[in-house]
Design brief:
The chain is of the alpha/beta class and 353 residues long. The protein is built from eleven helices and twelve strands. It has helices spanning 18-32, 45-51, 59-64, 81-95, 160-176, 195-207, 220-229, 241-254, 295-307, 311-327, 341-352; strands at 2-14, 33-40, 68-73, 100-106, 124-130, 134-143, 151-157, 182-187, 214-219, 236-239, 262-266, 274-278. The chain binds glycylglycylglycine.
Length: 353
Amino acid sequence: MEHMKRLSIALLPGDGIGREVIPAARRVLERAVGGLQFEEYEWGSEHYFRHGAMMPVDALQRLRQHDAILLGAVGHPDIPDHITLNGMLLPIRRGFDLYVNERPAFLYEGVKSPLIGYAPGSIDMVVIRENTEGEYANVGGFLYHHMPEEVAVQTSVFTRFGCERVIRYAFDLGRRRNGKRRVTSVTKSNAQGYSMVLWDSVFREVASEYPDIETESLLVDAAAMNFVRRPGSFDVVVASNLFGDILSDLSAMVAGSIGLAPSANLDPRRQAPSLFEPVHGSAPDIAGKGLANPLGTILAAAMMLEHLGEPAAAASIESGVRSVLACGKALTADLGGRASTAEVTDAVIAAIG
Ligand code: GGG
């Protein structure tokens, strides 16, 4: 077990399988490192049923006191998804200006890609999703709501400042990552002739400052095709909020399972706590059955430790996950196995030693 300075972690299990994968990740963190202090917040859909809101009004003030946040999932079959998402996850991303959403996808030994012929390590990419504006800006409204002549307007917001900072993060990561030193930008600027034309021009400007990084600019339809046709060619992919969300489900699947995919909502300036979560949602169909894959959340917890300046502890968790996957005895159903959430968690803890 690594020992670290005392760090305070806010746990937000949220809904559905979030309530199973967060306790699993907490057990792994407690095994891997000493000195973590956890505070769990019972916010989410049950809070909404009781109080009419997903979180209390002072939620951000309370979260701000922590060094980082580990979140499970948001979403309930009896509440419209736009209520749950806009009531919990999005206010945290926007309120803390967590403008980078980093979503790595790696094909681990022991995991089968649905694509034929890919060896372990041959898919190794990271989708950098702009996380505070774009299509998620939540600007718009209804006119003649619930009337036959109803109109809905939803406006994307792309700022030069917002595009530049996330694109710059992608290039810096391209230098740091020890990968192929390639950054791919994804837009749809043939159809989105203002917002994404701005994105493309900022991408070119920032790229000119990184002559050591190879670049590529793709329309999102071509990017989707190429994630399937040549996933091994991608290194860092940077995209708008919506496109990054969709493409990171695809990168997770070509690397074996969305159940394995972690994500980090980052404030690179470190003025607010960053938030770590699995890419998957609340999966109400399997919730409460002990079947959820905890590895996406466990890998998100490792990303959290890396961010908090504990790379050795992060590496011990990642290597525990790697050896569980390579061994193949404790895998959940999404990876072709029959193990429960608890059995996979026990196996990771045993592998950490
Ligand atoms: N793991 C968090 C979660 O529940 N994600 C599901 C979801 O709907 N996310 C929307 C988003 O990331 O934009």
